[in-house]
């Protein structure tokens, strides 16, 4: 699963003035890298054609399973048993419902305190910034959430942080952050209002914010499935035993449809929220506290949706009340979001896409055998001195090419030169087992470096897929070999 707010950028200072902010925004060039918690990648790269997804039987299997679930839920909801189930859920969640506004405000404030403590980020740990004042602005936003009169200022700060992030990140990357950011900001404004007609929509805007964010971000699993290969290799338990090419499209379907479910009828949205909460907990826990910070706000909103007692349906109520409205609505949502995602990508980057170069490695986790896809420090343990920035997998510093050689040839030559010395030094170890491992680590690293060059310069689809698989598999094996060296108390090679 992807980090959704984990994927959300965030909120900053309420005191940011828009004219001054506009000057900051247009005074710099946005980077082309989108950063997941596990690795940077390039959003400008051309996505896999939507026709590939539409021809995937596992995509349609996932859609069919979800439709059965939604239709069964709606049939129950329309019967007397439906109200009985909702009433039971109301009784269980009533203590939280009675103080739901306090819960949501507390979580929003706590989230900003947490990312203030992390430091150097915009709205989530995967959106880095060198500006120290941004962290203090986050602390200010947390304080502004508490008094009712200043909550609209906190909302302005959240939108301001998103706008500020445009200085450093491509707008296409930030779109999935926008929906949830707007939802949280709108909640703070509506909750602080003294107009009942406004206040009654405060939880509804949260639902829409998280639903749109999830549906938009889920499309990455269809557009760029190879970006998820390293994660599946590193954490195979996340697939629940399913093959990689079965799990990734079905995970995308689950994310999209559960997001869709949260804007449907009361029982559908509450069960969708519960399912997502279970999925998030299963996906977040293994990655530690920093990953929890990145997911905390969206998880809390999902809890609020599950505890929401309201029965009103304001958007297209007639459609939602009919059983036929479920497949109709889901088909319309898929059409709208897929058209928007692929269409906007073409509008921004052209049919062939565009690959840029990030200014530096940025990711939540730094490199280690446990997180081999984190950014690597040149010259450090396990770190190559140069990386192919726009490889679509790992990111780093662009490799210099000689003036009289083609860039790809120069890059390949550098790989061979870097690999040869450490390999020969490794295989010279007196212990044959250690010699094997110490020789294979730089050999594997050379294969990874060559695969990244292929992704940077190559065009053949089959070769690009093979290169992604090499990166995933051999990075995992390097981690295993480094762990073996650690257990044997043997020195780690530099690369």
TrEMBL record:
<feature type="transmembrane region" description="Helical">
    <location>
        <begin position="171"/>
        <end position="190"/>
    </location>
</feature>
<feature type="transmembrane region" description="Helical">
    <location>
        <begin position="323"/>
        <end position="344"/>
    </location>
</feature>
<feature type="transmembrane region" description="Helical">
    <location>
        <begin position="136"/>
        <end position="164"/>
    </location>
</feature>
<feature type="domain" description="DUF305">
    <location>
        <begin position="433"/>
        <end position="492"/>
    </location>
</feature>
<dbReference type="Pfam" id="PF03713">
    <property type="entry name" value="DUF305"/>
</dbReference>
<keyword id="KW-1133">Transmembrane helix</keyword>
<keyword id="KW-0812">Transmembrane</keyword>
<feature type="transmembrane region" description="Helical">
    <location>
        <begin position="246"/>
        <end position="264"/>
    </location>
</feature>
<protein>
    <submittedName>
        <fullName>DUF305 domain-containing protein</fullName>
    </submittedName>
</protein>
<feature type="transmembrane region" description="Helical">
    <location>
        <begin position="57"/>
        <end position="76"/>
    </location>
</feature>
<keyword id="KW-0472">Membrane</keyword>
<dbReference type="InterPro" id="IPR012347">
    <property type="entry name" value="Ferritin-like"/>
</dbReference>
<feature type="transmembrane region" description="Helical">
    <location>
        <begin position="103"/>
        <end position="124"/>
    </location>
</feature>
<feature type="transmembrane region" description="Helical">
    <location>
        <begin position="293"/>
        <end position="311"/>
    </location>
</feature>
<dbReference type="InterPro" id="IPR005183">
    <property type="entry name" value="DUF305_CopM-like"/>
</dbReference>
């Amino acid at each position: 699963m992807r980090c959704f707010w984990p994927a959300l950028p965030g909120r900053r200072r309420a005191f940011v003035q828009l004219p001054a902010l506009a000057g900051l925004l247009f005074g710099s060039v946005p980077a082309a890298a989108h950063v997941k918690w596990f690795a940077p990648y390039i959003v400008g790269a051309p996505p896999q054609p939507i026709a590939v997804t539409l021809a995937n039987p596992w995509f349609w299997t996932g859609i069919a399973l979800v439709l059965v679930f939604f239709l069964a839920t709606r049939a129950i909801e329309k019967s007397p048993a439906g109200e009985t189930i909702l009433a039971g859920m109301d009784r269980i969640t009533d203590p939280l419902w009675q103080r739901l506004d306090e819960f949501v405000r507390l979580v929003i404030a706590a989230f900003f305190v947490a990312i203030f403590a992390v430091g150097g980020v915009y709205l989530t740990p995967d959106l880095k910034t060198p500006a120290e004042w941004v962290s203090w602005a986050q602390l200010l936003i947390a304080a502004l959430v508490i008094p009712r009169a200043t909550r609209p200022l906190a909302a302005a700060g959240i939108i301001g942080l998103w706008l500020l992030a445009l200085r450093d990140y491509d707008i296409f990357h930030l779109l999935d952050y926008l929906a949830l950011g707007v939802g949280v900001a709108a909640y703070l404004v509506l909750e602080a209002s003294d107009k009942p007609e406004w206040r009654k929509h405060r939880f509804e805007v949260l639902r829409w914010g998280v639903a749109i964010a999830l549906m938009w971000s889920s499309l990455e699993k269809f557009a760029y499935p190879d970006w998820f290969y390293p994660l599946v290799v590193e954490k195979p338990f996340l697939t629940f035993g399913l093959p990689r090419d079965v799990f990734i499209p079905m995970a995308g379907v689950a994310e999209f449809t559960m997001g869709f479910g949260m804007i449907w009828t009361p029982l559908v949205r509450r069960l969708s929220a519960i399912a997502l909460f279970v999925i998030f907990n299963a996906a977040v826990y293994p990655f530690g506290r920093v990953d929890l910070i990145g997911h905390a706000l969206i998880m809390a909103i999902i809890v609020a949706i599950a505890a929401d007692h309201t029965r009103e349906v304001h958007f297209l109520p007639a459609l939602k009340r009919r059983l036929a409205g479920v497949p109709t609505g889901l088909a319309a949502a898929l059409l709208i979001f897929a058209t928007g995602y692929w269409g906007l990508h073409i509008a921004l980057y052209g049919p062939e896409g565009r690959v840029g170069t990030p200014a530096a490695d940025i990711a939540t986790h730094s490199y280690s055998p446990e997180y081999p896809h984190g950014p690597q420090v040149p010259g450090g343990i396990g770190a190559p001195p140069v990386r192919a920035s726009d490889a679509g997998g790992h990111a780093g510093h662009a490799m210099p090419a000689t003036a009289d050689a083609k860039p790809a040839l120069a890059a390949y030559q550098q790989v061979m030169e870097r690999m040869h010395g450490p390999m020969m030094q490794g295989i010279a170890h007196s212990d044959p087992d250690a010699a094997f491992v110490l020789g294979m680590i730089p050999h594997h690293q050379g294969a990874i470096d060559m695969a990244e060059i292929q992704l940077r310069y190559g065009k053949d689809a089959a070769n690009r897929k093979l290169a992604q698989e090499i990166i995933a598999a051999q990075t995992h094996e390097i981690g295993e070999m480094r762990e073996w060296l650690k257990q044997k108390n043997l020195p780690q090679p530099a690369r």
